[in-house]
TrEMBL record:
Transmembrane segments: none annotated. GO terms for molecular function: ATP binding; protein kinase activity. Residues 1-206 form the Protein kinase domain. It holds the Pfam family ABC1. It comes from Allacma fusca. GO terms for biological process: lipid homeostasis; mitochondrion organization. PROSITE patterns: PROTEIN_KINASE_DOM. This is Protein kinase domain-containing protein. GO terms for cellular component: mitochondrial inner membrane.
Length: 206
């Protein structure tokens, strides 16, 4: 995080130091500077997992223009996070139920998904909510025999299947978004932006 110059900052303006680097989706910069797209995605994912599940304070605007990548003095990957105007705080209960929901999704545990979706404000549409949270199809989530989402990375064909089907569930999605806490909306938005970066880095399977 760039240094903040509080002397020049106010309630409406945040002044921070200038940081070198290329935008996180600039593949030419990444290749020229011998950075690894896989390492970038992994480090970015870990950084946001720590924010969501450990610290409970989340930067909610990780679009490519707000994230720079570069090498530090030792030649290691460094991620620079800009624009700190949109954050959300997550309560302990929220973090617990959200983490348990993720574990249930990863374990193909339908009862767990139902329970922790309900704790987050979602009732009968827990299956659809689990798909929204993970950006995976329900068939993949519940396919425990094949290892579910843990053993099967998302493919472009699965992503295309989800895109084709999503309009069918607009009324149910609207109900879900009306019931969940505002923090969940921001976390889902953040997850979508991070998945967009991963897609731009071209590390998804086909």
């Amino acid at each position: 995080i760039p240094k903040i110059f509080w002397k020049y900052s106010s309630d409406r303006v945040l002044v921070m130091e200038f940081s070198e680097g290329g935008f996180v989706n600039d593949l030419e910069y990444i290749q020229t500077n011998k950075l690894s797209p896989k390492e970038i995605a992994k480090k970015l994912g870990q950084m946001y997992s720590d924010m969501i599940f450990i610290h409970g304070l989340v930067h909610c605007d990780p679009h490519p223009g707000n994230i720079l990548v570069k090498k530090d003095e030792k030649g290691k990957l460094q991620i620079v996070l800009l624009d700190h105007g949109l954050y959300t705080e997550l309560s302990h209960d929220f973090r617990y139920n959200y983490s348990q929901l993720w574990l249930s999704i990863m374990d193909s545990d339908i009862e767990g998904m139902k329970k922790h979706s309900a704790e987050l404000g979602v009732g009968e549409y827990y299956h659809l909510f689990s798909c929204v949270v993970s950006a995976r199809s329900w068939d993949t989530i519940i396919n425990k025999k094949s290892g579910g989402i843990v053993a099967n990375q998302v493919t472009t064909s699965e992503a295309e299947y989800i895109r084709r089907r999503i309009s069918k569930y607009i009324p149910q999605l609207t109900q879900i978004f009306e019931k969940v806490p505002r923090a969940m909306i921001l976390v889902l938005k953040t997850n979508d932006l991070l998945r967009g970066i991963e897609h731009a880095l071209k590390i998804q399977k086909t």
